[in-house]
Amino acid sequence: MRVLVATKPSAWAQQLPQWLQDWGYEVTSTSDGNEALKILQADNPPPLLLAEWQLPGIDGTELCRLLSRTDGVICTYAILLTPPQMLEQVADLLQHGAGDFILCPPESLELRSRLAAGYRIMSEQNKLRMQMKMMEELAESRFRQLIHADRLAALGTMAAGVAHEISTPLAFICSSVELLEMYWDDLIPTVDFSKLPEQRAGLLQSDIPKVHQTILRGVERINGLVSTLNTFSRRGDDTFIKTDLHECLNNARELCINVVKYTIDLQLDLDADLPEIRVRPRQIEQVLINLIKNAADAINANDETEGVLRITTTHTDDAAILIVEDSGPGIPPEHIDKVWEAFYTTKAAGKGTGLGLPITRGIIEDHGGTIILDTSPLGGARFTINLPFNHHAGQSEEPELAVIIDPQVSPELIEKNSGLI
Which pLDDT tens digit goes with each residue over 248-298? Predict the structure, then answer.
């Protein structure tokens, strides 16, 4: 701990630096008040000041008052060396910048105790200042995230509306292509292909039906996406119903296709005998979306040319089991408990809200299940979900909360329109 000593030359003042150094302090000395003020107003000033009442230039009392007027934050704890005849003015000084006082000449034991107390006060003040700064930064960050989430929520609502609007022209396209295909089949027998060049005649006879089928497959693909968007954005009917978990998985894959289709080898090991289970399907889809996207982010952050994302389903007599694991960098053991805390994220700034995993665990626990995080044999994270078969059996209750859509997923839902066919 650094100490600034500001005293006039005297016999007792000459002893102070040696005492302080013996007690482990780093000492800076001056006999001029103006010089002391410059030191205290510089960057990173000494946390402790030991100042004599009267000094050349600016005396110790004015020094304390000036320190308290800088920016409202006192970065230096001032102990005033006070002559006995000035004791009546000490109370006023303690209200205007001084932290403590001691009669001069000071006794060694008392001075050491007062400095130790000042050191503890400044240490706690520094901790509080750092915590305040962290809380201000956190509040600002959360405010930006809430604005971003609100915009993306509006975008998600708009996307659902757009999906609904797409359905009508999509039906026109589908019916028109089917009508063209029927007319083409009727037209083929009436065409004299002998009057056309042989190569062109062959292309017309073989390629036109292929074009029809390509258009229909594209329409079916878009229609599947629209149906998945409409199903996922539906809020009011998310009740506990008997559900095929593999259907939830397929819907989640459809919504995350743009996240995994380029650099990730998605491996499925599905239990063909997995019984249906009573769950809220939209919420289970949200869980799978969160885990798939987290795994994809981890793999991409690890700069893997082709990472592995493996999803396994199995069951026991009492529960269905879902395992989502990846070949990413994994989660350090010291962070495993923290990832379930709201707003905690290991992703780079702006890449995550820190809400996906807390939401995921909340959903699983609401289903009476458990989710366990450990390390996968693939090298990355492994999430093991157990969902009991007997939870809410025979009930069909409304959820207390609407499904929360992770704002980090929404952009993919919009961007996924490219490259589908």
Answer: 999 888 878 877 777 788 899 999 999 999 999 888 988 998 899 888 888
Q: Which residues contact 365 (CB under 8 A, 6 or more apart)?
A: none
Whether residue 224 sits in one domain with residue 91: no
> Tokens representing 408?
């980090």
Based on the fold, state whether residues 189 and 250 are members of the same structural domain: no
SS3 content of the chain, % helix, strand, coil (to 5): 55, 15, 30
Q: Which among 352, 407, 404 has a CA at the least distance from the CA of 150?
A: 407
Indicate whether 131 belongs to any domain: no
pLDDT at 138: 79
Residue 55 has pLDDT above 70, yes or no: yes
Looking from the CA of 155 toward its CB, the CA atoms found within 13 Å total 17
Paired strand residues for 321: 314, 386
Domain edge (last residue) among 229, 250, 270? 229
- pTM higher than the cut 0.85: no
CATH of residue 17's domain is 3.40.50.2300
What is the pLDDT at residue 302? Answer: 66
Domain extent at residue 166: 157-229
Domain total of the chain: 3
Of 206, 229, 252, the last residue of a domain is: 229
Q: Is 16 exposed, middle or buried (0-12, 13-18, 19+ CB in 10 A)?
A: buried
Listed range (5-19, 56-70, 231-245, 337-351) with the worst mean pLDDT = 337-351
DSSP of 274-295: PPPEEE-HHHHHHHHHHHHHHH
Q: Are 310 and 405 part of one and the same domain?
A: yes
- Rounded CA separation 149/160 (Å): 16
Q: CB neighbours of 48 closer than 8 A, spacing ≥ 6?
A: 1, 2, 3, 4, 25, 76, 77, 79, 115, 118, 119, 122
What is the C-alpha separation between 14 and 8, in angstroms, rounded?
A: 9
Helices 245-255 and 281-301 cross at an angle (nearest 10°) of 50
Instruction: Supply angle C-alpha 240, 242, 248, rounded to 5.
Output: 90
Q: Are residues 380 and 406 in the same domain?
A: yes
**Res 216: pLDDT:** 82
Residues in the chain: 421
- Residues 323, 224 share a domain: no
Q: What are the start-end ranges of the E strands in 105-159?
A: none
The answer on 257 and 192 residing in a single domain is no
Q: Are residues 221 and 247 in the same domain?
A: no
